[in-house]
Design a protein that fits this description.
By secondary structure, the chain is α/β, with parallel strands linked by helices. It is 37% helix and 20% strand. It starts with a strand and ends with a strand.
Amino acid sequence: MKILLAPSETKKSGGTQTFNPHTLLFDTLAPTRIKLLHAYTNIIQQGDMQVLSKMFGIKKETEILKHKKELIHELTMKAIERYTGVAFTYLEYATLDTHAQDYIDKNVILFSNLFGPILASDLIPEYKLKQGEAVGDIKTEKFYHEHATTLIETYVAEEEILDLRAGFYNKFYKPNRPYTTLKFIKEGKVVSHWAKAYRGIVLRKIAQSNISSIDAFMQMEIPNLSIIEIIEKKMHTEVIYQIEV
């Protein structure tokens, strides 16, 4: 089973070895990624603060300058450790045992706004690119949908898919085979913040339990969650959870 996960806007700084695009998932995609990275670097080198503000999604000049750097020279860490948003906070990857971490490293595919589909274990630098913003004239979600969809489909061909991403990331890749998504309801309303939190909680439980199929996942008990409905439409199964607290 492969698990699809969205990135976060917030990221941890630092790292160890320098960045190498050829080490990311799908080496054949490297020339395409490098083309995009060149466009990103060119914009940074031009230094137009208004353009950078829009691309980064930041207004404060000191923060813009902090991210005005050439990524090829930056230090890296695992993507699953780089992102620090709500889902990643509740995942608590660093506190998992080595078996659970290995499960995540091998089975979670993240959808970076800049690097496209990457494994949780792929080494990436700190970067800034606001969700939905273009790099010059390149809309990255369309760019990776065009260049990576076939590669992803081949990669997951023998796998079941659990899609934990926000809906925006369907623009990068929407499965062309059976897949399962989750929805979280609290007091009769679909939640946003808690949906992100429970994606992290669910992923943590999956990794700890070494879940290898959707059937096994459906039988897994998750604290404070209960299934209230399962909706099946063609290839898409949506599991709707009630948050009990």
